[in-house]
Amino acid sequence: MENELLLSPFTKNIVHKMSGDMKFLGIFTIIMGAFSCLTIIGAVIGIPYIIAGMRLKESGEMFRGYLEYASQDFMERAIEKESQYFHIQKIIVIITIVFMILYFIFIIILLTVFLKNFDSNILHST
User: Fold this and answer.
1) Cα distances (Å, whole numbers) of residue 42 to 22, 45, 98
2) What is the pTM for the complete model shown?
3) Can you tell me the distance from the alpha carbon of 2 to that of 71, in angstroms, rounded to the nearest whole number?
4) Tens digit of pLDDT for each residue in 90-116?
5) Contact assessment for residue 37 and residue 50, using Cβ atoms and an 8 Å cutoff
6) How far apart are CA 112 and CA 72, in angstroms?
7) Burial 72-106 (b: 16+ CB within 10 A, else e)
8) Residue 70 Rama label (left phi>0; alpha psi -120 to 50; beta)
9) Sign of torsion, CA 105 111 117 120?
10) Which residues contact 81 (CB under 8 A, 6 or more apart)?
């Protein structure tokens, strides 16, 4: 019992609700990642989403285990899994930012080529 963390009934209720939400969002994230993997480019984001969803789901299960067994080991594993989830989400955000920057560069290049072509057509038609 020395490793047991004591939670108030209010906190236990919050942890119970949170663990259910984490499992739901974890499963949803896994499904969205699987849909993203239907394309090769989408797999770049989809695979990390699947892994992140698995970590969030596992964290929710560990929090439930903590409530059931009142073991600090479950709490530590829950926090570890949640930490991994946030680390993967950070990587996904960085990948998304890189893709957005590349997209904007592509649009700027496309517009530049289009406007150059448009200007040269106007000059030659007069």
Assistant:
1) 24, 6, 14
2) 0.78
3) 10
4) 999 998 899 899 999 999 999 998 888
5) yes
6) 60
7) eebbebbeebbebbeebbeebeeeeeeeeeeeeee
8) left
9) negative
10) 55, 56, 58, 59, 62
